Structure formats: structure tokens, C-alpha cells
Amino acid sequence: MKRKNHFFQIIHKPYSQGFAILVSFFFIVLLITPAAAVNKSTVRELNETDWWPMFHHDLLHSGYTFAPDPQSNNMIWSYQTGERINSSPTLNYGNVYIGSFDGKLYCVNATNGNLVWSYQTSNSIISSPAIANGKVFFGSDDDTFYCLDAFNGTNQWSYTAGLGVESSPAFVNGRVYVGSCDGHCYCFDANTGTRLWKQYTGAGVFPSPAVSNGQVYVGNLNGFVYCLNATNGDIIWNYQVGNAEWSSPAISQDKLYIGSDIGKVYCLNAINGSEIWTYQTGGPVISSPALANEYVYVGSDDGNIYCLHSSNGTKIWKYSTGNLVQSSAAITDSYVYIGSHDGNLYCLDALNGSKLWSFDTGAGIFSSPSVVNGKVYVGGRDGKIYCFGKQSNVDVDQYVFDRGFPIRHAVDGDWAGAQNFTPGFNTISGIYLYVRKFGTPSFDLTVELRKNNIQGNLLDSQTFTPNDVPNFWGWVNIDFDDVLVNSETEYFIVVPSAPNGVTNSFGYEWGYAFGNQYDGGSFWFTRDGGSLWRDLPNMYDFTFKTFGY
């Protein structure tokens, strides 16, 4: 089973009804409801959604994702902020997080573009957020580095630097690394905001740090690349690649790739900083390299997008746009997605550079695109957040909510719930559940999609840690990678009980409604850990939605 963090829009709804009466009620129903037979079958390999939780996807700044390729320039939605956007979108928990020159950090629903929350700082936000452990980290030109609750945007802690924080943070092992225009690279405890160390580099640090093998790599505005000890910030080596470094480094197999303001793309030895090769473009390289399948993809102010061989810098292809290319590429197995100051978002063939599609936003694109689950997201200098790809639609819409059913270990058993449904589409792309956690659960929340019966073929499964689940009611999106289905077969959404060994009674609740809200399925539950499931037809339905094509 693969663990994923897949929260979508969180809609707060006060809840004052306890569930002690509910537990007693279902105990009685369990004794009088006839058993339903379930059969086990073979579990096939699961899909996994690859989120984009920080600038250029990961700690190495690869810019690569195994997500499905968005092969259409169909604009699914756009959201208008108050000013231009240089920040790059990051995605986690089913939301898009991005900053704007209006000083706000925005959290919008990745499916429909609806605003979840926004947080106002006192100056522009160029920094791209990092999201982890239910928190979002970012900097502002108000000289402050922020940590907010990722679900509701409340301030968890902040730190005042000497100048603006335009660098995009990197998160790993409970630590967050970020640069500042005051010339320092900082390391903070992600939970408390305690500064663990800072290292002065001699000039402003605009690029985002990359982290690999216990080392932090970052450039500064004196044109140097620094390698720092991730534990204490000590300088291991530095190397000058230009006069002012705006490009962020990317790391692969002990090699570091970075652009420079003198028009070169550099490949350095990541262990000692020695130069391996360079490639000269026709203009400054503000774009950060992306790495995939032995190739380096990077833009230049000469208006070209370059594909170079990672081993020796040989040019494989280049594609000419109409203006500066300062955006950094997002790479899938087949395509390159990148913006240009000519206003277009481009999708190019990764092997030969031929254009598959483009979309003209009418304004320049400095922001770097992110690709998640068959959709591409990017910010524009017109102030809009864009989402492109294939549009999914609501299929089953059981939205009525009365109270919650417990998923937990208890004295009277291990409780779990399930809901069967019949799809109206040929493909399921996602499911919404209405859930919350109560107390401090000691086990993860798992959601399964099964075929034919509660213990039938496992089609997909996603797991959320307790930190990922809010303690207030909200819609949670189980964002599947396009599961093929048919309308003559029953499918089951299953939330299993706590695993063996759990001793406390804290857990999760799945909302449900009284009455036969949905004719195509019904409410199932168990209190013995899943050995015996009971069906309550025409009495209750869990609160859920399905999406597909």
C-alpha cells in the first residue's frame, strides 16, 4: 500500500453532535441486521498520484514527475489574484498553493479553482511555497519567513530575516531550508520555527536550496554556488559561475546543474565543486534546469528552450519562443512544460522538442509550471492561476450530511465503514469524502476503491497520516489516476478499521445522512475489524461524491 497526501478543499462546518449515542445505536443494528457475504480476490498493482510539494517538485529540484501527461491545452479553470504572479504553484492535500505580488499566499482547490483561503503579508510574494506535515512554508518581501496551517491558513510561526525572502524553501526530515536577500541561507525547525543555523554567503540568496546526501546547495547574487553541511551550515565548497546567480541548482548522481547570468549552463561535481562541463546559450540563464532520462532541460533569455545531454552538455535540441524563457520546465515521461515571456505556456516533445500545444495567456509567464494527475498548473503575469488538462465531472453527488460514523478502535470493537455505488461514467478520476479526525489518532486513515464487493479487487488505495487530516469537517478528495470502470458493476469505497495493535479510542469520522439519499448504493459498516460487514439499505448513505469522464 502506498501512502499519499491527497486533501482537497477543506470546507469548515461546525459539529456539536457527539458520536457516543451513534456507537450504541450501531451496536444494536449490528445484532439485528442480516450478514452480507463478501469474497476475497487478487489485489492488482496500485496507482499513485505524484504531488508537487515544493519548487521544482522535490529536494533535488529535478522538475520531473511520473504523473500522467496533460496532452490538452484545454483550460479547466483560472483564478484571478490581485497582482502579477512570479511564484510557482506547488500542490499537496488536493490544493494549489501560490504567492502573488499583491502580498497574499493563495490556497485554491486543485479540481475547480475555488478559493480555500488566502493569507495577507505586507509585501509581494515571489517565493514558491513548500508543503509538508500539514504546514505550508514560504517567504515574503516583507522580510519574513512564514509557516501556516496548510488546511486553514492560520499562522503557526514566523521569522524575521534581514531583508526580503524571495527564495523558495525546501523541506526534509523536520527541517526547512531557505535563502534570503540578506545573504544568508537559513535552517529552521519546521515545527517550532527555531532557527537551527544560518550561513552568510556574501550576497543575496534568491535561488531555492536543493538538498542531497546531507548537503544543501544554493546560489547567490555574487554568482557563487555554495555547498553547505545540512546539519550545521558549514561551508563545504563554493564555486563562481557568473556575476549574479538567479537559477536554482538541480542534483543528480553527484552532479549539480545550474544556469548563470553569463549565459552558461554548468555541470559541477556535487561532492567537490569541480567543473565537469559548460554549455553557452545566447543570453542569461535565469531558468532552473530540470532533469529527466539523462537530459537537462532549461530556458534562456535568448528565447530558446534547450535540451542538453547530462553527461557532456551536448545540445540535443532547442525550441525558439517569442521572448525570454525564465520559467523552469516541468518534465513528464514524454513532454516538457514551460512558460515564456511571450505569454505562452508550451508543451513540447521531450525527445525532439516539437510542439504539441501552447496556450497564450496574453501576459508573460515567469512562474514555473507544476504537473499533477494529468493537469498542468502555472501562474501568469496577468495575475491568474491556470489549470490545463482534461475536465472531470461530478457523477454521484451524495452531499447531504447529518452526523459522523466513527472509524476507530473501541471497547466494543474495531469500527469501519463502506459505501457502494454504481458509476455513470467509464472512468473514475476521484472521490470526495466528508471526514474529520477526533482526538489524536495513533493510526493512519486509509481509503480504498474496490470492485464487486467490500473485499473485492483493490483498484486504488490512498493513506493519510493523522497530521494530514483536519479536526473539523471538510471534503477530502481521493484523487485517483483515472480508474476504468463500467456502469454494470458495483464499486465500493472502503475505509478500513484501525490495524491490530491500536489501543486508544481516537480515530476518524465519516459523515453520513439519514434516509435513502442515494438509490445506487447503501451504507455498510463493521465493528469486528472487517470480518463481518452489515448493510443498511434504504436507511442511511455516507456523504460522498464521485468524479470521472
Would you give an account of this structure?
There is one protein chain. This protein has 549 residues and is mostly beta strands. The protein folds into two domains: 20-48 and 395-548, Jelly Rolls (Sandwich), CATH 2.60.120; 75-389, Methylamine Dehydrogenase, Chain H, CATH 2.130.10. It contains one helix and 48 strands. Strands 33, 34, 38, 41, 42, 44, 47 and 48 form an eight-stranded antiparallel β-sheet that branches. A six-stranded antiparallel β-sheet has the order 40-39-43-37-45-46, with no helix packed on it. Strand 10 and strand 11 (175-179) form a beta hairpin. The longest helix has 13 residues, at 20-32. It is globular, with a radius of gyration of 25 Å. It starts with 19 loop residues before the first helix and ends with a strand. Residues 1-48 have low confidence and may be disordered.
Which SSEs are present, and which pair or pack?
Blueprint: H1 20-32, E1 75-80, E2 90-92, E3 95-99, E4 104-109, E5 115-120, E6 130-132, E7 135-139, E8 144-149, E9 155-160, E10 170-172, E11 175-179, E12 184-189, E13 195-200, E14 210-212, E15 215-219, E16 224-229, E17 235-240, E18 250-252, E19 255-259, E20 264-269, E21 275-280, E22 290-292, E23 295-299, E24 304-309, E25 315-320, E26 330-331, E27 335-339, E28 344-349, E29 355-360, E30 370-372, E31 375-379, E32 384-389, E33 393-398, E34 403-407, E35 409-410, E36 413-414, E37 416-421, E38 427-438, E39 445-451, E40 457-464, E41 474-478, E42 483-484, E43 491-495, E44 507-514, E45 523-526, E46 534-536, E47 540-542, E48 544-548
Antiparallel strand pairs: 1-32, 2-3, 3-4, 4-5, 6-7, 7-8, 8-9, 10-11, 11-12, 12-13, 14-15, 15-16, 16-17, 18-19, 19-20, 20-21, 22-23, 23-24, 24-25, 26-27, 27-28, 28-29, 30-31, 31-32, 33-48, 34-44, 35-36, 37-43, 37-45, 38-41, 38-42, 38-44, 38-48, 39-40, 39-43, 44-47, 45-46
